[in-house]
Write a structure and sequence with these properties.
Layout (H helix, E strand, L loop, with lengths): L4 H15 L32 H5 L8 E4 L4 E3 H10 L12 E5 L1
Antiparallel strand pairs: 1-2, 1-3
Pathway: Protein modification; protein ubiquitination
InterPro entries: RING-box_E3_Ubiquitin_Ligase, Znf_RING, Znf_RING/FYVE/PHD, Znf_RING_H2
Family: Belongs to the RING-box family.
Length: 103
């Protein structure tokens, strides 16, 4: 059987159409801080949320997180009060040196 060029194109396209399928995908994205524990050890609130002090003060909109050289993270409000009494990390007792500040 001899096929024309048009017939070859039509039959070549049929298997490709059969291999294609469509589907619906609902993406849900979450994020988290890059730390071992995602909860502030001082106020026990997740780092993604405002600390207790900032939650109580409705005018406060900037509750940042600080990481120490030991890679432990705390709310800045919580840690700033902590270092007034003790200049060590509450979790590992290393000298507290701020490595980075983030939101």
């Amino acid at each position: 059987m001899i096929q024309t060029a048009q017939q070859r194109r039509q039959t070549a396209c049929v298997p490709l159409l059969c291999r294609c399928s469509s589907f619906k995908w609902n993406a849900l994205a979450t994020w988290a801080w890059d730390v071992d524990c995602d909860t502030c050890a001082i106020c026990r609130v997740q780092l993604m949320e405002e600390c207790l002090r900032c939650q109580a003060d409705a005018s406060s909109t900037d509750c940042v997180v600080v990481w120490g050289d030991c890679n432990h993270a705390f709310h800045n409000c919580c840690m700033s009060q902590w270092v007034r009494q003790n200049n060590r990390c509450p979790l590992c007792q290393q000298d507290w040196v701020v490595q980075r500040v983030g939101r």
